Amino acid sequence: MDAIEYVRRQLASSRRILDATLRDTTDDQLNWRPPGAANPIGVTLLHLAAAEDMFVQRTLRGQRTLWSADGWAERVGVPAPPGRDNWQELASARLEIAPLLAYERAVRNATDEYLSTLTDSDLDREQEFFGRSRQVADVLALVVTHAVGHAGEIGALKGAQGVTGLPL
After folding, report:
1. Domains of the chain and any CATH numbers
2. 6 in helix, strand or coil?
3. Which among 44, 62, 64, 81 is most buried, taking Cβ atoms within 10 Å?
4. What is the pLDDT of residues 17-66, one digit of tens each?
């Protein structure tokens, strides 16, 4: 198996976990505000999709994010996705699952399209990422681990609401 195929398999696995965790999520569950410092599922899902969008579209491809290029702020209903600093502002936003999943699917498709252009040697290319040089492979590995980590978080938030979280 070549390295690009391995990246595709890892990404597919993380997507299956996230999809299974999100299955049957309602808008009320999406917006439930947990106690303490945890964030609602919707804000977490938006962050996850926007991070992949930024990592792949802006960092690796050098293009505008889908969020800004395709008008997702209007579709999702918030001015900007949570990044490193605006989580509290979005914690009380009322989000809907359908537009969030549509954005997440658009990001996935764009990532898949990017992967179809890569060769194994492209994975070694150095890229500026959060102020330091990283290989493309490292950025793609972060896309995978980031998704799995937040899927676990979403699963726990669903479980705290008395519904199935991670169905494993």
Report:
1. 3-160 (1.20.120.450)
2. helix
3. 81
4. 999 999 999 999 999 999 988 999 999 999 999 999 999 999 999 999 99
